[in-house]
Amino acid sequence: MSSQGVDYYKKAAARAMEWHAGNIKKMKQCRFDTIAVHGIYSMQEALDFNQGSIIEPVYMSSSQTFRDSDEMEAALGYEIPTWCYARIANPSIYYMEGVLALLESYGAGVDASCVATASGMAAIQSAVDQFLVEDPKRPNAPMNFVATTQVYGGTFQQFAIRKEQERNIEWRRVVNSTDMNEWESQIDENTRFLYGEMPSNPSQAFFDVKKIVDLAHKYGIPAIFDSTVATPALLRPLEYGADIVVQSVTKSLFTSGFGIAGAVIAKKNLTTNIDNPEMKADFCAYLKQLPNRDNGPNLSPMNAILALNDIRTIRHRMDIASRSTMTIANFLKQHKHIEGVDYLGLQEHHLHELASDYMYLVDAEHDEQYGSPQNRYGHLMSFRIKGDAQNTRNVFDALQRIWRATDLGRIKSVATIPAISTHSQQGEEGRKLANIPPNLIRLCVGLEHPDDIIADLDQALGVLDGNKVSMTFPEFSAGGASSATLKR
Ligand SMILES: *Cc1c(COP(=O)(O)O)cnc(C)c1O
User: Fold this and answer.
1) Ligand 1 atom closest to Cα of residue 151
2) Number of folded domains in the chain?
């Protein structure tokens, strides 16, 4: 067999990439739901490559074979698109990345790309670590980043322990994230990025996204946001000029709870003071081909397809869950055993107005049912029980329909006490900074009928009036090892 030559493959790849770009351009004309449902997988692709399969196939394969040495050389040199090895790329993962890039950049008027990771924490690490490198122009200069303290517990640990304690990279903490002076006063020439989570988990801190973006760009650094709680159905930071969005795909996007996944979505040509043109031009392509290839935080193809399947319905789910959460928040706030309810959707929440500027159900104005913009505040809320921490535990332990789990975004309602779970490791001081008192219960509302969730909360709160809740659980759940039961 005579050699085709590397150029032959490069030309063929250029034609294929042009076709893909055209297909993505067509998808960009569609509404959010259509993009969520179809993603970047087209009929043409199904018929040409996938036996007509209407659902994106799961390529459960570690690697790809090549026609000849020329194709292999072109692929490994990244001269043609390839899934040479699934740590770097894989078609199933590519479908998930494609849809998330389109959804996060929906209506933003920018081109974005996405790289999937094995978890939300890996997405955060992948997103921020690329900026925490030495500036060759200023060797040995200290590095810092400016980030809100009201962040997910895992993020708090990654920043406080892995960056600050272990690597001596200063985390300049923003405690009141609506105070723009506090943000700005922390920035200096060694600041590498601004980072914020909104609405934050669990305290629902919220800040002015656009102002933070403008501030970052004034200093030539990127604005990075964890937008997990909002999801692209309710808020898309790229629309306000953000450089990078991280998602714990695990949560609302991957609502069925089959697994863990994360994603970094970045606009092309982002702002940075790091001299790395390749990274600046297409952050996610760079991340995928180089740092993540070397560090290996990558997603499995099976999880990519399972997540992809849930992503199709994200807009409808966030709409229904937001409405139910509002109903439940209104029930709780008038309950005699409740000290307070924190939900951005409640008018009395001190950040309600600010959140109302940003949190909208995407495309509600094109929806026959609504026909105009509709604020939606998501399905994460928290409430504080009157009395001491034990009261809170008693109510929590009496829940019978709402699952006790350190999870959120599930199709089933789940609740946790953050002080003893998601936010236990950061200590009392850290919890104070993150605004997490011991009597706080975080509730993430699922797609059950809200009446049934209210009924469960009502009976659980009844234990504070002396009502007895009788539940029996097997002592060991593994394999029915014991028939002994716990009475409470
Ligand atoms: C859960 C969560 C993370 C971490 O994601 P994993 O997928 O669990 O690694 C990050 N940020 C927020 C807001 C989260 O809720």
Assistant:
1) 13
2) 2
